[in-house]
Design brief:
- This is Regulatory protein, luxR family.
- GO terms for molecular function: adenylate cyclase activity; ATP binding; DNA binding.
- One of its GO terms (biological process) is regulation of DNA-templated transcription.
- Pfam families: AAA_16 (PF13191), GerE (PF00196).
- InterPro entries: AAA_16, P-loop_NTPase, Sig_transdc_resp-reg_C-effctor, Tscrpt_reg_LuxR_C, WH-like_DNA-bd_sf.
- By secondary structure, the protein is mainly alpha-helical.
- Among the domains are: 170 residues, P-loop containing nucleotide triphosphate hydrolases (Rossmann fold, 3-Layer(aba) Sandwich), CATH 3.40.50.300; 53 residues, no CATH class; 104 residues, Winged helix-like DNA-binding domain superfamily/Winged helix DNA-binding domain (Arc Repressor Mutant, subunit A, Orthogonal Bundle); 206 residues, Tetratricopeptide repeat domain (Serine Threonine Protein Phosphatase 5, Tetratricopeptide repeat, Alpha Horseshoe); 48 residues, Arc Repressor Mutant, subunit A (Orthogonal Bundle).
- The protein contains 47 helices and eight strands.
- The strands form two sheets. A five-stranded parallel beta sheet has the order 2-3-4-1-5, with helices on both faces. Strands 6-8-7 form a three-stranded antiparallel beta sheet.
- The two termini are 40 Å apart.
């Protein structure tokens, strides 16, 4: 049997859905056919290898591969699969290779060989690279598909290399008519998958800039990525993506154009120098080719899959690395002449026939040694790309210009803003400092300081933030009333808001607003409104007004093209008190994502978007979906090298949900990562550790941890009712005495906590103190709250039921238990456990309709995904590996699924999900 080819990554990336489909075919224990399609290097063989590694030891495996030239070697693929294999009938094998026999006889011999080897056992038979296969092998593939029994037949091919004359073309048509064919089309990786692959190969998160550059360079092709990394696994990825192509990869790529006609070669060489996207008229101007001649050459290159037509009169290379390999084969003077010709054509085009992309102009000017032209194009292009949200492109162009003129303030400003929007915090800080130090005007200095304050906050450099704010305050005193002074006031408002100095933030924003209104400064007005609205949402007494300010400015900001301001406002609206309906909440989140993408604001477009999805799920009472959103976002981000506040951005929220679920191992792991990772709020780690110790025996000294919590609260500038409720509930579970509970509560509450949470906390204390009528009234008062999420209202209803039972009011208790059952129908963990205890006291047993939807319909999307994997036979350890979660979390998911489906074993899950 031929050993399937592998890759440098220790785990398969981005093909879980396809692997699940193949495993489902195998698990069905009946004849099945699958065809895997994709370009070279996209991972067809890796997918097959991953499938084969999961098969039972008694399964029969045959893997054969067609090679270029196989068309003239009948049955080459099967003979390759049988080469060196024990147990093959030598007589039948001789008949298969006997060219004196008729094709029909040899076909029957091949079918008998396969049938005897399988002998009714489960089997997987793989014919790789069918685009090269001979017609006899294609016919044999079809006949094997007709064999009855528990075998799966898998073929792979490259669609771009299949023509109407190839045997596989007819084979695909016939299989589609005669069999239930599973077709899997593998596509190149997106940036997130690229980051995951880089992290898997190198063993560490990848810098975002390296991810973007390598993804663009390789087109997301896994083989190309691995080839570029080969031998550089321990190197700095920032340097690797600038390395020349390794010899083996360059040869593979250049082989695609080895036999081109001379005119086609001349055209493709010119195209390789002209850039990623090549315009027909520019190619004609540079090569001097006539229209008919160029049409013929381009048609041939598209037919050979060297180029693809990406728009009207626009062409691109199928892979950026192919373009690089061809251009790298040209001599230096040849490349410079082509760049010079392109630059002259673009500059001479006064009628707008050619694409006037500043990056293209700058690229050709730099390669031609025309540096003044390059700088002019770079300055223009940076502003353009920032205005359309292309942050990475703006940064690359700014850095191209700065390599020639390192003191240019406009390029430094563009580089700083672009790096910040793209999430490249260290780069942004470095460029912003240089921008401030080389500022030629008060406006430049002011703008630089405004950005630097934000960057210092994201980097968690509080002392630097204070220094920068003081510097802006001094600047305000020096500046005359005008746009610069108003913007500086807005910068101080932002600094105060970020440091939770709410009153100061509102005061500075009002000063900026007054000046903006007086001098008609619409941009400054919008920026000041955002800072004021964000600050006011921190106080319950002004939160509604703050949200109204933010909601009222979004339309205006979008019309003005101020996408960053619009996205920041929308992000706060998503995180704050929710709108009237989940649909409206989801609409706000999508609008935030779109505006952030338009700005190129990576952190809001991606990381904050996952948190928004989790918050919506919490607001809908769906714990599984909330956890799934955060796990997905966290796994994606952990493949990137992040610093400052965006490092492990989802960890704290996820730890809180794990505590809700009872996934204590997951919480412990996150606590350890937070201890050694980025700086967080003072109470975060002590609060999580205390909560965990209260709920898991042996997790820590609860009284000592409470002392740590109280010390940390004193250093926290804000208070949270949600935090108070959660920690108090944990403290009660941990058995702390009443005086300690009161001490904790007084430390956690202040006048700015929402009244509904204060009422809930008072009810919790009243219940512990035995003041049951007060507790019952308090719990019932918040059960219909618009502020509290369903899970917390559910706990309030459970508390009300407990108190009613203790007061011998079973009717009230039953009503409150029913309300809690509805609110907690899609929750889990300690809140549901408390409900179940009350239901037991009431003598209630779960019945259809009593706890909401049951059966497969009750599964969350994440649980349904897990259920399908369980049906495929995955163990908890395999579930954890596939879904990037801990085995403990996997076990909790399995337990919840079995409970919701009403089954007792994993083998019953598949049938239940099918129903």
């Amino acid at each position: 049997m031929r050993t399937t080819r592998g890759g440098a990554s220790p785990v398969m990336i981005g093909r879980d859905r396809e692997l699940r489909q193949l495993r489902k075919l195998v698990a069905a224990r009946r004849s099945g056919v699958a065809m895997i399609a994709g370009e070279p290097g996209v991972g067809k063989t890796r997918l097959v290898r991953e499938l084969l590694s999961t098969l039972d030891a008694d399964a029969v495996v045959l893997v054969g591969q067609a090679e270029p030239g196989s068309l003239s070697r009948p049955y080459e693929v099967l003979m390759d699969a049988l080469d060196g294999r024990d147990g093959v009938d030598p007589a039948l094998l001789a008949e298969l290779g006997d060219s004196a026999r008729s094709p029909v006889e040899r076909l029957h011999s091949g079918v008998r060989l396969v049938t005897e080897l399988i002998a009714g056992r489960p089997a997987v038979i793989v014919f790789e690279d069918l685009h090269w296969a001979d017609s006899e092998s294609a016919a044999l593939f079809e006949r094997i598909a007709d064999i009855e029994g528990p075998q799966v037949l898998i073929g792979s091919f490259r669609p771009a290399e299949v023509t109407g004359r190839d045997p596989v073309t007819a084979l695909l048509a016939r299989l589609g008519r005669r069999h239930s064919l599973t077709r899997l089309d593998l596509h190149p990786f997106d940036e997130a998958d690229t980051a995951t692959l880089l992290a898997a190969v190198t063993g560490r998160p990848a810098p975002p800039r390296a991810v973007a550059a390598l993804h663009q360079r390789t087109g997301g092709n896994p083989f190309f990525l691995e080839e570029l990394l080969r031998g550089h696994e321990s190197d700095d990825l920032e340097a690797v993506y600038e390395q020349p192509l390794p010899w083996s990869l360059a040869e593979v790529l250049r082989r695609q154009v080895d036999d081109l006609e001379s005119e086609q070669r001349r055209i493709v060489e010119a195209a390789s120098v002209l850039g990623h996207r090549v315009h027909f008229d520019l190619l004609a101007a540079v090569t001097g080719a006539g229209e008919d001649e160029l049409i013929r050459a381009l048609g041939a290159l598209v037919a050979r899959d060297v180029l693809v037509e990406t728009g009207d009169d626009e062409f691109s290379f199928r892979h950026a690395l192919l373009r690089e390999a061809i251009a790298g084969h040209l001599i230096g003077r040849q490349r410079r002449r082509l760049h010079e010709a392109a630059l002259e054509a673009l500059l001479a085009d006064t009628e707008g026939r050619l694409p006037h992309d500043p990056a293209m102009l700058a690229h050709h000017a730099q390669a031609a040694g025309r540096y003044e032209d390059m700088l002019a194009a770079a300055r223009k292009g940076v502003a353009l790309y920032l205005s359309i949200g292309s942050a990475y492109q703006a940064l690359e162009l700014a850095e191209m210009g700065l390599a020639e003129d390192a003191e240019d303030p406009s390029l430094l400003a563009g580089a700083a803003r672009a790096a910040w929007l793209a999430g490249l915090l260290p780069d942004a800080i470095g460029y912003a400092r240089r921008w401030r130090d080389r500022a030629r005007s008060a406006t430049d200095r002011n703008d630089a300081l405004y950005l630097m304050i934000r960057l210092a906050w994201e980097a968690d450099e509080v002392a630097e933030m204070d220094e920068l704010t003081h510097e802006v305050e001094l600047l305000i005193a020096e500046l005359p009333p005008g746009a610069d002074q108003a913007l500086a006031m807005t910068a101080v408002a932002q600094s105060s808001m970020l440091r939770d100095e709410t009153a100061e933030a509102v005061a500075w924003a009002d000063r900026a607003l007054a000046l903006a209104e007086e001098l008609d400064l619409p941009r400054v007005r919008l920026a000041a409104l955002v800072e004021k609205g964000l600050a006011m949402t921190e106080w319950p007494s002004t939160a509604a007004e703050g949200q109204a300010i933010l909601a009222g400015l979004v339309d205006e900001a979008e019309k003005a093209g101020e996408w960053v301001l619009a996205a920041r406002a929308l992000n706060e609206l998503v995180q704050g008190v929710p709108p009237n309906s989940p649909a409206e909440h989801a609409e706000l989140l999508e609008r935030m994502r779109v505006d952030a993408e338009r700005a190129g604001f990576e952190s809001l477009a991606v990381a904050a978007y996952f948190q928004g999805q989790a918050r919506i799920a919490v607001r809908e009472g769906d714990l599984g979906r909330a956890i799934a959103a955060l796990e997905q976002g966290r796994e994606r981000d952990r493949s990137y090298l992040r610093r400052g506040r965006w490092a492990d951005y989802h960890a704290v929220f996820l730890a809180g949900l794990y505590l809700e679920l009872g996934s204590h191992d997951g919480v412990a792991t996150i606590i350890e990562s937070l201890r050694s990772g980025p700086t967080v709020e003072p109470l975060t780690v002590p609060g999580l550790a205390f909560h965990l110790a209260c709920r898991r025996t042996g997790a820590g000294d609860v009284p000592a941890l409470l002392d740590e919590v109280l010390a940390a609260v004193a250093d926290q500038s804000w208070r949270s009712g949600s935090q108070a409720h959660d920690l108090l509930a944990a403290a009660i579970e941990g058995g702390l005495p009443g005086e300690r509970l009161t001490q904790l509560t007084r430390a956690l509450l202040d006048d700015n906590v929402w009244d509904d949470y204060r009422t809930l906390v008072d009810a919790q204390l009243a219940e512990v103190a035995g003041r049951l009528p007060d507790a019952l009234a308090g719990y019932q008062a918040v059960c219909g709250s618009l502020i509290l999420p369903p899970s917390v209202r559910g706990s309030a209803a459970v508390g009300a039921a407990r108190c009613a039972l203790a007061l011998d009011r079973p009717g009230v208790a039953a009503a409150e238990a029913a309300r809690a059952s509805e609110l907690l129908a899609r929750w889990g963990g300690w809140r549901v456990a408390a409900l179940d205890r009350v239901r037991d006291q009431l003598g209630l047993t779960p019945r259809d309709g009593e706890r909401g939807v049951t059966g497969a319909a009750a599964l969350t999307p994440r649980e349904r995904e897990v259920a399908l994997l369980i049906a495929d036979g995955l163990t908890n350890a395999e579930l954890a590996r596939r879904l990037y979660i801990s085995p403990k979390t996997a076990a909790v998911h399995v337990s919840n699924i079995l409970h919701k489906l009403g089954v007792t074993s994993r083998t019953q899950v598949g049938d239940a999900v099918g129903r």
